[in-house]
From TrEMBL:
GO terms for cellular component: DNA-directed RNA polymerase complex. Keywords: DNA-directed RNA polymerase, Transcription. HAMAP family: RNApol_arch_Rpo11. Belongs to the archaeal Rpo11/eukaryotic RPB11/RPC19 RNA polymerase subunit family. Pfam families: RNA_pol_L_2. InterPro entries: RBP11-like, RBP11-like_dimer, RNAP_AC19, Rpo11-like. This is DNA-directed RNA polymerase RBP11-like dimerisation domain-containing protein. It comes from the Eukaryota. Residues 53-123 form the DNA-directed RNA polymerase RBP11-like dimerisation domain.
Length: 139
């Protein structure tokens, strides 16, 4: 049952992230929190690089970051994809970096989140079908 809760959690979080309004993004590097500046510097981000972006996810950690990274890394339009969760802060933030070969990083992130939703829904359906078959054969 724990795996089912994790799948539901990942599905819910992916749908929430997919619905985030892009107007909240900040383009001024001086207004970024120190952790985001460090994450951007570690990833080699410059302000004039339109093919690379660092996205900040509130209240997220390695569970969400790792699965999203795995999905987005398989996209042929992605040159680099990675994330960090700084341990120096009290707030739980994940900094997710995408550098695109082709297209916009925002579009690649949207596509990755949509794929994550589909994967979670498919996993939930497979689990439900298996549980139903088990119940029917053992009753």
């Amino acid at each position: 049952m724990k795996k089912n809760r994790i799948r539901r959690y990942l599905t819910r979080r992916a749908k929430e992230k997919l619905a985030v309004d892009e107007s909240e993004k900040s383009s001024d590097v001086t207004s970024k929190p120190q952790e985001e500046i460090i994450a951007s510097q570690q990833a080699g981000e410059t302000d004039d690089d339109e093919n690379a972006k660092t996205f900040v996810f509130e209240d997220e950690g390695h569970t969400f970051g790792n699965v999203l990274k795995s999905i987005i890394s398989d996209d042929p339009d992605v040159e680099f994809c990675g994330y960090i969760v700084p341990q120096t802060t009290n707030s739980k933030k994940m900094y997710f970096r995408i550098k695109a070969k082709n297209g916009k990083p925002e579009d690649i992130l949207r596509k990755g989140l949509a794929s994550l939703c589909k994967v979670c829904e498919m996993a939930n359906q497979t689990l439900e079908n298996s549980m139903e078959r088990y119940r029917s054969s053992h009753s």
